[in-house]
Amino acid sequence: MSADDAITRYLGTLAHERRLSEHTLRGYTHALQRLSQLAGARAFAALTATDMRGAVLKAHAQGLSSRSIAHRLSVWRSFYRWLATHSDMPANPVAGIRAPKRARTLPKALSVDDAQTLMNAPHAERTETKRDHAIIELFYSSGLRLAELVGLDVAFASQDGYRSAGWIDLPAADVTVLGKGGKQRTVPIGAKALAALHDWLAVRGEFVKLDPHPLFLSVRGNRMSPNVVRERVKRAALAAGIPANVHPHVLRHSFATHVLQSSGDLRAVQELLGHASITATQVYTSLDFQHLARIYDQAHPRAKKRG
Hints:
- The chain is of the alpha+beta class and 307 residues long.
- The chain has helices at 3-16, 22-39, 49-61, 66-84, 112-120, 127-142, 146-150, 191-203, 226-239, 248-263, 266-273, 278-282, 285-299, 301-306; strands at 152-153, 158-159, 162-163, 166-169, 174-178, 184-188.
- The relative contact order is 0.09.
């Protein structure tokens, strides 16, 4: 069976037996064409693990993302498993070959100036805008995840089979949430967020219908959905003139970055964010180092000469 015949038969199997979509099949076809180019005049069975490692290094050097390389290897691995059932294959040369680890990307965060612009932006004295302002302030004040915020109740409740997953306590100036892994944590609410919450709670009754528990309600009286919260945050940022794409996670990262810059207490930020490992929090320290590196480059005598 020739290389072209093997690929054609394999793709036919995927299309008819596994009923893969056209988009997925195009991805498989592209990956198998790369395998055919790698093989050249050799049979697929003649390729070795060394060939596969070389292909990975070459693709990485050419700028192919780790995710794309991993997909390519997955297709090749699957193809070789199929080939082993239709021909004499000594071993699967892709077994054990892994894509390079993805580089950790730094979280996006607003500058302090943009954060202040967003928080201080004037908003109409309407029920919806007061609610949205309270949402934005609470995200930035307490570093909540989107799922944690939409799950908040106006107060703790446990009755008739219902039990709050999260709630606010204004007298104590804190918010309790149920985070990842079912871990509960309580974090403080800043003064600006407290004031915004008081403004929202003063008019929240206009939106209360059947369910009295949710802190943030839609105009129909339902608990706000994550998609609606994303849209309202984005809309508020655009109205304030913030050029960046602002979404709830940006506010969470901004909270973490600005608290860390002010306090330098990595362990405290870990607790506030609800990270199980401090490694997940340490990525924020890179933001400071990058900022310092840019300042250093701009101040360097050679940079001034080039200017």
